[in-house]
């Protein structure tokens, strides 16, 4: 059964919160802290969106473009300097998915 856009967005939001909570719990810091870097780099610094959240939007939310990632996660809707990093993550995820099949 295909996911509706609303259900996809809900899934991504849950994954995003889980990622942020896990990162904060691993470092013992609050969710909004600017402490030591973790293995999940922040891609959109304006909104604090991590690489794992963008990968999840591509994989589970079937996002193919920066605009679709922006609609689903809001990453890239601030200063827009992360658009190249978002494109790179989406391309890498697609290559890995193609190699896995």
- β-strand percent reads under 5%
The overall number of domains is 1
Helix content: 55-70%
Number of helices: 4
Low-confidence stretches: 27-34
Please list the strands of the largest sheet in the order they lie side by side. 1-2
The ordered H/E elements are HEEHHH
How would the global form be characterised?
Answer: globular
Count of strand segments: 2
What is the makeup of the main sheet?
2 strands, antiparallel
Rounded mean pLDDT is 77
Cα-based radius of gyration, to the nearest Å:
13 Å
Structural class: mainly alpha
Cα distance spanning the termini? 21 Å
Question: How would you describe this protein?
Answer:
With 101 residues, the chain is mainly alpha-helical. Helices cover 57% and strands 5% of the residues. The protein has a two-stranded antiparallel ribbon. The longest helix is centred in the first third of the chain and has 23 residues, at 5-27. It is globular and about 35 Å long. The model is unreliable at 27-34 (pLDDT under 50).
Can you describe this structure in just a few lines?
The protein is 57% helix and 5% strand. It has 101 residues and is mainly alpha-helical.
Layout of helices and strands, plus pairs?
Blueprint: H1 5-27, E1 42-44, E2 49-50, H2 51-59, H3 66-73, H4 83-100
Antiparallel strand pairs: 1-2
Helix pairs in contact: 1-2, 2-4
Which descriptors apply to this entry?
101 residues; mainly alpha; two-stranded antiparallel ribbon; 57% helix; globular
